[in-house]
């Protein structure tokens, strides 16, 4: 199993439905073999961007290039793209192996060649035992694995994933996410992964593109997006953040850069803790003075957190660099 | 649990004198019987005339005999009527499926807003009485015929009424089938994630027709089968339009022959009735099996 490594270029792509602009002059370049996640809230245009690359939508302006070739006006079935949809796109009338063979059948491969390749892919996705089942006999996670195998069977130039995990439950989600990452790295296939789940986006990506109202707010490696967000929107949307006004400037601080200490004279009161394993998230609310109503989010090791039960009055201390500070003074 | 416990403050003896069983018990039992009453009534309403017809057809004078069915072999007119009706049925099914399925699929895929328009159009025949439809068709054909020999309208009128394959009946039957078959096909398409399937197929390289043929049609077999059987039942049962247009189909033959050989007409009618029921049963069962398949 080999895959072609192709570049993908969005060149000033805009899309409007009527008067509503969904994508505004989007430019984005995927290097060959790269996995980019496109992250954003619902309605930010991420799915539209993906569907334009797939060929299901025609951009209002701009071009899309795959491996240097302009495909803007090419029909979806001529683009040689592999795509995994949110859910339920397997053909219910075909068995698992027939689903995987579908694209090969369209490409008129011989039966033996088709069987060999489909078998190989099912093996890779850990589904060899399910070849003769029908989609409705599989769990959601298994169905998405079949969808992945089906997309990869045609040796696509690009792999598109449209929120492939959002219909699955948490454990399966992580499993399939890791599997996608493993296959992508093994095959070296250029991949665009669209999601609204920031943890998912950060975990899997080479680079993350954060999209907001049709514009890319930031395009960077996951750790950069998290630690050094380029805008208020990114700071708020990716990860948890505490917003404070320090020296007259709006300052965004990640939980691990904020430490809470018991302080009888503190302006904040601990409201709750959530244990997440390695770290414990502590929430506190300002109860007096200028701090009234302000939310603090801090993360600490369990031993430190145990000293701060709900109701404890605390004060905060900046123990790291703030993720983002506004240029201008806060109003 | 609490529901099943007898209510203590209303002792059985207080209202009804029945001593052994609690009052509620016999009441529920009576209610259970009452629930079956409508079903029994409908079953009786449907089966008694049919059973009587069967008895009349195969038990002449109290002894079993299939003599009434001898018309099947001896009456050339019946044979012709059956062949003609089968031909009409076949063409009706082809035209119906070929026109309706692509239209409904296209509306679902590309113009969901037009769905209501299509639905209203397809439901219209339901509110037009068959005799009104027949009258309209007759008026049109007569106008064609009145244009005189050799004219195009006359030729078309003649062609449509050709006794071997009266296309005018095919057209009428397709229209009469629309309300029910549209509903069936529309519902069939709604139960499958059509857009996801079509896009999934396209991205794998299939064109529109390949997609429809390979993955859309196979997933709506149940509703198409229903349409086929419904059209068959309608073609073998429709009398008004066929009689008005003076076309010798099976129902028209039945009507004609009932004045000379009543037993034969009943015998054939019973046979048709049972065949239609069997077809409908197959359609319903196969649709149900497919629905189970999809869950």
TrEMBL record, chain A:
A Pfam family hit: ABC_tran
The keyword Secreted is annotated on this UniProt entry: no
UniProt entry keywords in alphabetical sequence: ATP-binding, Nucleotide-binding, Transport
Keyword Transport: yes
Gene3D superfamilies: P-loop containing nucleotide triphosphate hydrolases (3.40.50.300)
Residues covered by the ABC transporter domain: 8-238
One GO MF term attached to the UniProt entry: ATP binding
PANTHER family: SPERMIDINE/PUTRESCINE IMPORT ATP-BINDING PROTEIN POTA (PTHR42781), SPERMIDINE_PUTRESCINE IMPORT ATP-BINDING PROTEIN POTA (PTHR42781:SF4)
Protein name: ABC transporter ATP-binding protein
Automatic annotation (TrEMBL), chain B:
PROSITE patterns per the UniProt record, alphabetical: ABC_TM1
Highest taxon of the lineage: Bacteria
All residue ranges annotated as the ABC transmembrane type-1 domain in the record: 82-283
This protein's UniProt keywords: Cell inner membrane, Cell membrane, Membrane, Transmembrane, Transmembrane helix, Transport
Recorded topology in the membrane: Multi-pass membrane protein
One Pfam family cited in the UniProt record for this chain: BPD_transp_1
Keyword Repressor: no
Transmembrane among keywords: yes
Membrane-spanning residues: 36-59, 86-111, 123-145, 165-185, 224-245, 265-288
Span list, region Disordered: 1-20
Cell compartment(s), UniProt: Cell inner membrane; Cell membrane
Family from the record: Belongs to the binding-protein-dependent transport system permease family.
Matches recorded under PANTHER family: INNER MEMBRANE ABC TRANSPORTER PERMEASE PROTEIN YDCV
Name of the protein: ABC transporter permease subunit
